[in-house]
Write a structure and sequence with these properties.
single chain, about 210 residues, mainly alpha, Arp2/3 complex 21 kDa subunit ARPC3, 8 helices, elongated
Length: about 210
């Protein structure tokens, strides 16, 4: 193919456009990670009621937004590690491990929604509003009962532990629904602007 061949010009233009898109996408992912991390950390520090936080919503949204699984998986771990520096300790390593492990569920739901049909996305986001808080309530309260001495090691003690956690479960549900709605609204508003910026970056490259 000669250098003055129109096909060479078209191929070069396409390559430049692809490189511009990749560069913009990488920068966008970085800023998205920083923004979501900041929201999760500040939201945990400033929670108006215990467990009313953006953590599950941020984790699910990270799983949905990022192309690669690594930054999406790192996001909730980093948010917990940073915010825990100013929050009361978990008192036991087993309890802390279950808290960190439970971030896997909203992450998986977010990944499942990514690239799926509209019906699948609606189902995944609907489950994000209920399942993470429910699973967190069941698993972490069991861990508190099992690893901490505040509750008797009996069935009665377990039931009392779950009963004591119900108010926090309600608060966590409210927080998840609130922040999921907030992030969905922000995403819809920013998605159109993101396309405009990508097109502008491509025009500058031409």
């Amino acid at each position: 193919m000669r250098l003055d061949d129109p096909r060479a010009t078209v191929s070069s233009s396409v390559s430049q456009r692809a490189a511009a898109c990749r560069n913009f996408s990488g920068q966008s992912d970085l800023w998205t990670f920083v923004a979501l991390l900041a929201l999760a950390v500040v939201g945990r520090w400033a929670q108006p009621a215990w467990h009313f936080t953006p953590l599950a919503a941020v984790t699910a949204w990270g799983g949905f937004t990022f192309r690669h699984w690594a930054p999406a998986a790192l996001l909730p771990i980093a948010a917990l590690a940073i915010s825990d520096l100013r929050l009361p300790s978990h008192d036991h390593g087993g309890v802390m491990a279950t808290v960190y492990a439970m971030t896997a569920l909203p992450w998986l739901l977010g990944r499942a929604a990514r690239g799926g049909s509209l019906k699948r996305q609606v189902a995944c986001w609907g489950m994000c509003g209920l399942l993470p808080a429910t699973a967190f309530f069941l698993v972490t309260n069991f861990a508190v009962w099992a690893f901490q001495s505040a509750w008797e090691p009996t069935w009665q003690g377990l039931l009392e532990c779950y009963a004591a956690g119900i108010p926090f479960y309600r608060t966590m549900l409210a927080g998840d629904l609130c922040y999921l709605s907030l992030l969905a609204g922000c995403w819809l508003a920013a998605n159109g602007e993101r396309r405009k910026l990508a097109e502008a970056a491509i025009r500058l490259r031409d």
